[in-house]
Amino acid sequence: MKKLIISVSAAGLILLFSASSGYAETITKPPTRLYEQNTMSILWFQNSGEAKALYFQGYNIGKMRLDEILRKKQYNRALKPAIVLDIDETILDNSPHQASYVVNGKGDPRDWSKWIKRADAKLLPGALDFLRYADSKGVEIFYISNRQEAAKESTIKNLQKVGVPQADANHVLLQQESENGKENRRQQVAKTHDILLLFGDNLGDFSGFDGLTDRGRLETVNKLKEEFGKKLIVFPNPMYGDWEGAIYDFNLKKPWQEIEKIRRDHLQTYEP
């Protein structure tokens, strides 16, 4: 039986996701203002120096940690050293796709396939320099994304176009129909490699976060606080992600009016 997860994209489009297949379909059309609620998130991501600084910071920390681990040989030398990275909003910038929902006030999540086929996403700051550095140190690089396997050719084409090293079928691991999350692919890599560092914009890019409530995610972050900046490197993405789905308890059968109310109810404010 396929598990169904309801989610609302940050752009406000209400979707129905099959966790096993990753397929999404529109189940209701939200008002234009729900799309527009993502305007500031996308503006910040695309235009703020702070967003770019955080990417540089994350990859700088990654380089320092990689140097330290390799220099001190702090890994299982019986295995090959490796790093694991997400792709979207970690290496490639898909914010133009998100912006299209805001500008046009409409859209279909299946348009992600059209965007991916363009293979035209640009690099995020610091990504290429870090990846080339890791490659020069003989570290294997695995790109683990929840893009569907059908998008593999276009994904590899995009990565190769921007000069990312080791962007081939053996290192680009996309989601299979039977999968829910990335843990299985991480475990497959770990059978033959010691994963030194993991990079992502979503807590689901790390072990232990799949399917957690918003409170559960915060609690798990607290438990793993020593690992952030040490083994786990997080990048900013206010545009979309499991952080939003968790607020709705991953229940997308809610009407858009309720979704909008939940958003407002989760804001922490004060009495003026």
From TrEMBL:
This is 5'-nucleotidase, lipoprotein e(P4) family. Keywords: Lipoprotein, Signal. Transmembrane segments: none annotated. The keyword Signal applies. It comes from Neobacillus paridis. Pfam families: Acid_phosphat_B (PF03767). Residues 1-24 form the signal peptide. Gene3D superfamilies: HAD superfamily/HAD-like. The keyword Transport does not apply. InterPro entries: Acid_phosphat_B-like (IPR005519), HAD-like_sf (IPR036412), HAD_sf (IPR023214), Lipo_e_P4 (IPR006423). It comes from the Bacteria.
